[in-house]
Amino acid sequence: MTKVENDHRGIPDTQASRRYFAKFEKILTHLGRVAAMLHVENRLSKDEVEVLTRYVTALNLTFRALSMKYLLVGRDTGQFFGSLTMDVQDSGFPTVTELMVMANDATQVDQHLKTMPSVETLKDEMVAEIIGDQALPTRLQFTLSQRLYYEELARGKLFWARNDPQCLWLSGEERRRYLLHWAVYDSQLNLPTIYLMEVKDSGREALPKDDRRWPEVQAHLMAQSLGGLKLLTIAQGFDESFDQLHPKRLRRFHIGPMYSHSFTRQTGPIREVLEQARAPEGQDWTLAWTLEELESERVREEKSGWFSTVEREVFALDPFGGRGVETGTTATERMVIMPERPFQVLSERNPPGFATVRKFVVNDAGRVLSY
Question: 117 is in which domain, residue-wise?
Fold first, then answer.
């Protein structure tokens, strides 16, 4: 068995699968609240929070669709049907294959919905089977779950393996300022990754209306959206490819990993914290969240051809310990979001390496505290 096969595991038990999806529904709700707190602290602008919230909502819709797809997992439905495959080692999230299959299903959603009975018809048939045959209508339940799955896909606005760049106007007339945002599902780590790039546009035509530049920008950014690439590499490549677009700030959010003693094979201090916390159902988790940031420090001019010059950005790198060259960022901030019980154990143990990690402690009442 290869390492990848060993790191990926299905959730074939009905109750375990439903607990898994319920856990993520809570986690993603808390994630939106943490983003709002960062806005209050002026770490994120209102526009950035709205964009992040949109992607978090899309993630939630993706998990809802998958929960419908696998609602009857572990039950005898008369169908050979697998279970959700998750990455138990590196992320705690579903594998990228799940999102790729879902994207393929979305292209055929109209055909499936057209040939399947309606929700009302299936419910009537289920009642008739329960009353008339005095039997559990498991096969009809399975059909209904698949119907609901395709209806979720038909509504759209989900988080896909690739979420192409969009352009949000911020300000400016002579030099327009935009927030470009896009997201991918990292196929190596099985984690959602969100990019935000603030650019100034010195071109004649507004970027979103430019039939030549905008498709090129979208294709370029998606090709560079690899977790292994440093932000400095991405920003400099963009700067050199588009003379009239000037990247002033680039941010990358890594959502996850999610650690849970019930579902993942975490190692190190997190494993011991979750094991000793013995948290009740729904509170046995910790979500890591990493923010990488690169900012332009100044502008320099360089020759372009015989008679003209172009502006190039000079990016500020993290000055502490020379790590900027290594990380390719101006700053990197690591955060964890966790319920109260695991945080209490983490505080008591105080393991090395967590002193500089920001902790957000959440509860079911919606309260968020920062440490």
Answer: 3-155
Instruction: Give yes or no: residues 39 and 116 share one domain.
Output: yes
Contacts from 361-367 at CB under 8 Å and sequence distance 24+? 362/30, 362/33, 362/34, 362/337, 362/338, 363/339, 364/26, 364/282, 366/33
* pLDDT tier for residue 272 given thresholds of 50, 70 and 90: confident
Residues 40 and 94 in one domain: yes
Task: Please indicate, yes or no, whether residues 74 and 129 belong to a single structural domain of this protein.
Answer: yes
Q: Tell me the three-class secondary structure of 164-209, residue by residue.
A: EEEEEEEECCCCEEEEEEEEEEECCCCEEEEEEEEEEECCCCCHHH
Is the predicted pLDDT of residue 306 greater than 80, yes or no? no
* Length in residues, the chain: 371
Tell me how far CA of residue 301 lies from CA of 23, 240, 298, in angstroms. Answer: 51, 12, 10
129-156 pLDDT, tens digit per residue, is: 899 888 888 889 999 999 999 999 999 9
CA–CA distance, 146 with 111 (Å, rounded to integer)? 13
**Residue that terminates a domain, selected from 155, 184, 219:** 155
Average pLDDT rounded to a whole number, residues 14-29: 92
Note the pLDDT of residue 1.
39
Alpha helices in the chain (DSSP H): 3-7, 14-40, 46-69, 96-107, 109-115, 119-128, 138-155, 213-223, 231-241, 269-277, 323-327, 340-349
Alpha-carbon distance of 146 to 144, in angstroms, equals 5
Q: Taking Cα atoms as reference points, which of 71, 225, 211, 232 lies closest to residue 150? A: 71
Omega of the bond prior to 192 within 30 degrees of 0, cis?
no
Rounded to whole angstroms, how far apart are CA atoms 64 and 32?
17
Write down the pLDDT at residue 324: 52
Q: State how many domains the chain has.
A: 2
pLDDT digits (tens, 9 = 90+) for 319-329: 664 555 678 89
* Together in a domain, 176 and 141: no
- State whether 86 and 173 are in the same domain: no
Do 67 and 11 meet the contact criterion of CB atoms below 8 Å apart?
no
Q: Are residues 127 and 211 in the same domain?
A: no
